[in-house]
Amino acid sequence: MGYVRFAALGDSVTHGVGDAVPTGWRGWARLLAEALGSSHDVSFCNLAVSGAVVSDVRTKQLPEALAHRPDIASLIVGVNDTMRSTWDRDRIRRELLETAAALHEAGALLLTVRFHDHGRVFGLPGVLRRPLHARIAFLNEVYAEIHGAYGGVQVDLGERSEVLERGFWSVDRLHPSELGHRSLARCFGERLHELGYDHDLPGHACAGGAVPTWRSDLHWMVTEGVPWFGRRARDLGPWAARMAVVEARGRAPLGRQKVPVVSGA
Predict the structure, then answer these.
(1) Of 141, 144, 73, 143, nearest to 102 (Cα)?
(2) Where are the alpha helices (DSSP H) in the chain?
(3) For residues 127 and 162, is the Cβ–Cβ distance under 8 A?
(4) Residue 85 vs residue 65, higher pLDDT
(5) What are the two backbone dihedrals, phi and then psi, of residue 122, each rounded to the nearest 5 degrees?
(6) Are 172 and 217 in contact (CB under 8 A)?
(7) 25, 144, 172, 221: which could join 16 in a potential S-S bond, CB 3.0 to 4.6 Å?
(8) Does the reported pTM lie above 0.90?
(9) 8 Å CB contact between 167 and 179
(10) pLDDT, tens digit, 9 for 90 and up, residues 123-162
């Protein structure tokens, strides 16, 4: 039995939101750590925090992860950045690359993803979905750059059909359900198998978690979901309005467009 140090960095998805257990949140990273524990002595450190953005991971989580001296490190963050008015492509790319480089240089095998079309899962209207998709596409370019430079394991969520199924998601359609977390854990587990890690694969069958009810879903939406959506609406409302105006102008009928007058021809 070998010894494996696993550090998980990121936001609420890696923290485990959507996969409730009696002690709090479990999530895909813990499920993967437990599976690795079937044949390894595992030291698991979950540093992911709900609501974290790329800067949080770079400045707060990375130093703790490096202190853990991980053999495996997951880096999945950036979706929260896409939903904020502070979106800054250059800074986000720089901080993601710096974080990945530091983990790689410390000897960690990187676990990353390419994100799916969140707007399609949310059911957003096109005027909101297209700008959000453009930001997600940029994140995917950065994660592709990271994978190209440092290798590791990368799961492309956009290529997985189950991501578009309702059962993959919890009530808010932003965080995976227990089934979704298990699916993600198994994806990484299968890829680690291919790299020589001999361990039991995380199971698809839901077990050990709290079974969602309409009461628990309603309570979560009232106490957590609605306030979160309210904050994002206040933050992104002006941006969304500008995008709507820009798109409307771009699609204006030719008869309404001003045609320059060319003289002297």
Answers:
(1) 73
(2) 12-15, 28-36, 54-56, 62-67, 79-82, 89-105, 118-122, 126-150, 178-194, 214-220, 226-250
(3) no
(4) 65
(5) -70, -25
(6) no
(7) 25
(8) no
(9) yes
(10) 555 555 667 788 899 999 999 999 999 999 999 988 877 7
What is the token pair recorded at 196?
Answer: 């020589």
Q: Which of 219, 220, 239, 198 is nearest to 1 (CA)?
A: 198
Cβ atoms of 28 and 185 closer than 8 Å: yes
Is the Cβ–Cβ distance between 185 and 177 less than 8 Å?
A: no
- Say if CB 161 and CB 204 are below 8 A apart: no
Residue 142: name the closest of 83, 97, 108 by CA.
97
Least confident span in 32-46, 58-72, 203-217, 245-259: 245-259
* Residue 50: DSSP 8-state: T
Give the N- to C-terminal CA distance of the chain in Å, as an integer. Answer: 84
- Helix, strand, coil in percent for the chain, rounding step 5: 55, 15, 30
Strands 20-21 and 24-25: antiparallel
**Minimal CA–CA distance to 136: which of 175, 92, 191, 183?**
92
Inter-CA distances, 227 with 176, 221, 243, Å = 19, 8, 24
Instruction: Note every long-range contact of 231-235, with CB atoms under 8 Å and residues 24 or more positions apart, other chains counting.
Output: 232/83, 232/84, 235/83, 235/84, 235/85
Rounding to the nearest 10 degrees, give the CA dihedral for residues 138, 140, 145, 149. Answer: 160
Q: How far apart are CA 47 and CA 11, in angstroms?
A: 9
Helix-helix angle 126-150:89-105, to 10 degrees = 30
How far is Cα 258 from Cα 256, in angstroms, rounded to an integer? 6
Supply the Cα-derived Rg of the chain in whole angstroms. Answer: 21
73 exposure class (CB count in 10 Å sphere: 0-12, 13-18, 19+): buried
